[in-house]
Specification:
By secondary structure, the protein is an alpha+beta fold. The chain is 42% helix and 22% strand. Helix 3 (51-59) packs across helix 5 and helix 4 (64-73) runs parallel beside helix 7.
């Protein structure tokens, strides 16, 4: 019994050290998992409840010219992404965002990903600080200043909208 308790404590410590950030996960009565707080895309990739992520990531092929541009222009850009794992727009746009930044070799350290519940109000004041009222919201920063954002959906496609925002920088 003591060995079992030690094992459980060790697993909790290991699970807490995964670099995912301080998030909590709830499950609605109909089974939808909602992530609230800071987390990383590895959670979406590893949890089968988020099968929409892998499916939409794999189905997306971004424009190669946009990827080439982003590969050089976006390395000093910091992204704050506010998403709802319950939200149809997030399920559509978030995988496209991550495929675009992955192919562009933008470091994961440049991206802060936050989940919100259906109220879209964060516990830490982040949504209020950045005026986020709809999800997903992708906010781009350069030298600490906001240079643009994509709210809810793209106009021309994720890679084209990101490229357009950076060209205005």
């Amino acid at each position: 019994m003591v060995k079992m308790a030690r094992c459980c404590v060790a697993l909790l410590i290991i699970a807490g050290c995964g670099g995912e950030g301080p998030y909590r996960m709830t499950v609605e009565s109909h089974g939808t998992k909602i992530v609230v707080g800071k987390f990383t895309r590895s959670l979406l990739e590893s949890d089968s409840s988020f099968s929409w992520y892998r499916r939409n990531y794999d189905a997306f092929t971004p424009d190669s010219a946009s990827i080439a541009y982003l590969s050089t222009a976006a390395h000093d850009v910091h992204f704050i992404v506010v998403a709802g794992t319950w939200c149809g727009d997030t399920k559509y746009e978030l995988p496209k965002f991550f495929k675009t930044v992955s192919l562009s070799h933008i470091p994961e350290t440049n991206i802060d990903l936050y989940g919100v519940d259906r109220s879209k109000i964060s516990n830490d004041g982040l949504t209020e600080k950045y005026g986020v009222t709809r999800v997903p919201t992708f906010i781009l920063f350069s030298d600490g200043k906001e240079i643009g954002r994509i709210v809810e959906s793209t106009k021309n496609g994720m890679e084209f909208d990101l490229t357009g925002l950076l060209k205005k920088k």
